[in-house]
Amino acid sequence: MSDDKQQPATRIVSAGRRKAWTQGIVNTPVWRASTILFDTVADLRQATRTPNDGLYYGRRGTPTQWSLAEALTELEPGAAGTMLYPSGVAAIAGALLSVLKPGDELLMVDSVYEPTRAFCRNILAPYGITTRYYDPLVGAGIADLLAENTRAIFLESPGSLTMEVQDIPAIVAVAKARGIVTLLDNTWATPLLFPAIEKGIDLTILACTKYIVGHSDVMMGSVTSGPEHWEALRRTAQSHGQCVGPDDAWLAARGLRTLAVRLRAHEQSALAVARWLEVQPEVARILHPAMPDCPGHTIWERDFNGSSGLFSFVLKGGDDAARARFIDGLELFGIGFSWGGYESLALPIDPATIRSATQWKAEGPMVRINIGLEDPADLIADLDAGLKRLHGNAAEPA
Ligand SMILES: *Cc1c(COP(=O)(O)O)cnc(C)c1O
Question: Of 231, 278, 360, 369, which one's alpha carbon is 20 to 30 angstroms from that of 3?
Fold first, then answer.
């Protein structure tokens, strides 16, 4: 167990490590189980009465999953508990279904991760839950959008692809005054850069697949809740039969221990690359919360403890083929979905087609990059060669 008064980098080392679960081993071992055996009928009945307390049945987890969930809770001062899910999208779905019922309206940020939008369209809408999209920069103006049946506000900050930083304290203040639940997709910042529960968010969601796991080899999601919504969150997850495998939980817990140092390295390298890109003639704009062109940059300065390794940039003119030449020839950047791992990635992005409440305009094609743990000087050299390919007259790389 860790101590709220310690710095997060200290807490992350001891969080979730109860002696009863570790048996003195540093890392909580992998406890694999479906069936749990009881000594007597009386013991089985006792366990049935308190299924959230101790070993009961594999779906309710073993010390391996409890240890990870407790560690994530300890990183969010003020939180009551954490549920684990087999992916980030499953966590988003579980959080939304724990607070919404037919007839409710959900306010959803227009810069949200596209699969979250798909969940609202494909699952919530047929159940009679309507979703209305709002401008990520709305701030306290969210008050004007509230309807009689608005039950929840979903935030993601910075937004997926376009990186707008939301005024979370302003939105939380409006929501609290009206008894509306707030949910935040906090995957980019993690609790280390933005302790969401302490800042007044009710339910905070992580795609643990990204920075918690950190090594691109496990899918997982989590929802950490303040006291008010914890029982409903747990009941909903258990009713859906949500659980994660102990081997995956063990890998995620192992990743978590190094989160603070990895994030610092990602931050420093991403800033070095972003500052270099910013002054290249082929680049129109950098969308990185720590840089002045990013919408909501001053809010990031006010509210966040730092930045991570994912950002986007806009090319100055050019077409899809030029962008593909730039990306295809990169040697150190993989081409693929996800992010938050130790390896750098580059992704062509086209956010204008996804939006519904706002319009996205850019000077040219866009690229999102995940800065991994390589030396930034090598990444910059790779990008430099890539920008030269944009002009279409560079030789193919050997
Ligand atoms: C990747 C991602 C998710 C979904 O996580 P999965 O584990 O891939 O399902 C959710 N939100 C954000 C912001 C993401 O980047």
Answer: 231
Residue 256, strand partner residues? none
User: Is 210 a residue of the active site?
Assistant: yes
Point out the catalytic residue in the list 18, 32, 45, 59: 59
pTM: 0.96
What per-residue confidence (pLDDT) applies to 395? 47
Q: Is 185 a catalytic residue?
A: yes
CA distances from 48 to 16, 53, 111, 115, 241 (A): 24, 10, 44, 37, 17
CA of 207 to the centre of ligand 1 (A): 5
* pLDDT at position 148: 97
Residue 373: which CATH number? 3.90.1150.10
**pLDDT tens profile 214-266:** 999 999 999 999 999 999 999 999 999 999 999 999 999 999 999 999 999 99
Please give all residues whose beta carbon lies within 6 A of any atom in ligand 1, as ranges. 87-89, 113, 156, 160, 185, 187, 207, 209-210, 219, 221, 338
Range of the domain at 351: 260-389
- Whether 52 is in a domain gets the answer no
